[in-house]
Write a structure and sequence with these properties.
The complex is a heterodimer of chains A (314) and B (255). Chain A is α/β, with parallel strands linked by helices and 314 residues long. Chain A folds into two domains: 4-224, P-loop containing nucleotide triphosphate hydrolases (Rossmann fold), CATH 3.40.50; 228-296, Alpha-Beta Plaits. In chain A, 35% of the residues lie in helices and 28% in strands. In chain A, helix 3 runs parallel beside helix 5 (138-150). The longest helix of chain A is centred in the middle third of the chain and has 16 residues, at 168-183. The mean pLDDT of chain B is 89. Chain B has 255 residues and is mainly alpha-helical. In chain B, 44% of the residues are buried. The chains are: A alpha/beta (314), B mainly alpha (255). The A-B interface holds A 15, 47, 50, 53-57, 74-76, 78-79, 81, 83, 85, 87, 89-93, 98, 102-110, 148 and B 1-2, 4-7, 9-11, 14, 17-18, 21, 84, 88-90, 92-100, 250, 254-255. Chain B: One of its GO terms (molecular function) is ABC-type transporter activity.
Chain lengths: 314, 255
Amino acid sequence: MADPILELEGLTKVYSGGLKALDSVDLNIRKGEIFALLGPNGAGKTTLIGAVCGLVRPTSGTMRAFGHDLAKDWRKARRRIGLVPQELATDMFEPVEHAIAYSRGLFGLPPDKARLEEVLRSLSLWDKRKEQIRALSGGMKRRVLIAKALAHEPDLLFLDEPTAGVDVELRKDMWRQIDAMRARGVTIILTTHYIEEAEEMADRVGIINKGHLLMVDEKDAMMKRLGRTEAHITLAKPMSEIPAIIARFPVELEREGTALCYRGGDGTGKGKAEVAELTKTLTTAGIDYVAIDTHESSLEDIFVSLLGKQEAAV
Amino acid sequence: MSLNLRGTWSIFTRELMRFLRTAFQSVLAPVLTTSLYFIVFGAAIGGRMPALGGVDYAAFIIPGLVMLTLLGETTSNASFGIYMPRFTGTIYELLSAPVGVAETLIGFVGAAAAKSLILAAIILTTARLFVPYHIAHPFLAVVYIMLVAASFSLFGFILGVWADSFEKLGIIPVLFLTPLTFLGGTFYSIDMLPKPWSTVALFNPIVYLVSGLRWTFYGQADVHFGISLGITFVFLAVCVTVISIIFKTGWRLRD
């Protein structure tokens, strides 16, 4: 594994009201990856980002970014970190280009017109550069926030719900932007409610709930480990028990023997192949069927399942 | 630790630009207010007042008027400067940037103080249209105005961090600062007050500020300039200490 550029160890945050938003979170982020942090509302996603970016004071634990201790060498570390917040927080009366130039200066970099133009053009904001931010649409305002976060050329970028409240077209456009950032070598940590977003973008996924990091894994490995294929085969004639010829498959009878249900595979296509094998076996054995309905579990199914298990354990 | 000077400069220039965006109001308001004070207190009432310590009444009130505007505008500029980012959420950028307490203070407080100096210059220029006056210690006057502007910018910064509503933001300037300034010898010498009020007035810290500036103008004041200077420095030190604690604990800034 490449050296982590962000290392969190035992990160805990208890708010003054007693709410434990983060509970001993350990997490390593690799250079150049897109890491998606999934979790329901109040899971601790924004608190985790806030702790790394200096908005939240952790109760305990250590954080290192680019080899710097964030509690001690925060100046050096923060120069390389960018943040796009969830809320559309901007100075509404400020022209777009001023807002972005300000962000660059705030992070200690000299003015750079070429960089400013590059960032504005890459986010389709060049034509709007003179306009006050209040005159822009919600989607464009979010782009301004991204441009502000990119102005100081961060190596690590946090995107807190980057596509919350934007329409489908803009969301896909945003995904392209994120992909382009990754291509430039920026490591990205994004939080999202949209599992589709994590499926589409992420290299690795972390699932967090009630301050606990439940699982961190490669997206594909997670799908492989927890993914399932489910197939419902409606039989031409009901049966009372599973015939021996298909006993090797993970099947069971349902709907009073009128259907077979297959649950297996691992999210890599193994399940689909087994379903095909099963149907061939049924045909060979002369067991007729009239319909097949298959379903591949998504990251969302895994997410819901993991959260369900945690709820049950509590 | 090396200071992020570009960060400081960015905060400073952005705050000044915010001021310039409302330049018409920022400049016109003190010109109009000062003119009104001169018409009412300088011409209408001042014509019937005797000279105070050999200084014509219209000229006597100039340092008080400068202080009146300076305290109000500096406090509200500095408090708005930090309250608005907290209110709109844009403070996330400041907190996540490589800027610490020094850069933040120099940027915000420096800009608020700079605005105040501009306002003081405007008021003095406007006053010149109504009454001829001579500043006995111009260098000390500028230094003292800068010192007061810096102190009340820090005070405004604390106010802006403390306030969690626009109402609270306005309470201190309206209910405390303005009355204390009016009662602080802006329009009169505290010697003119009967006993015990002339003694009670000495518990009003604004008396020392007005008196200090008046001394730099006319070489005479209600209290010794050294005392005024000392009290201003104490106030400055208290504000710096409070702000250091705010940043150290993250009070109202970081969760």
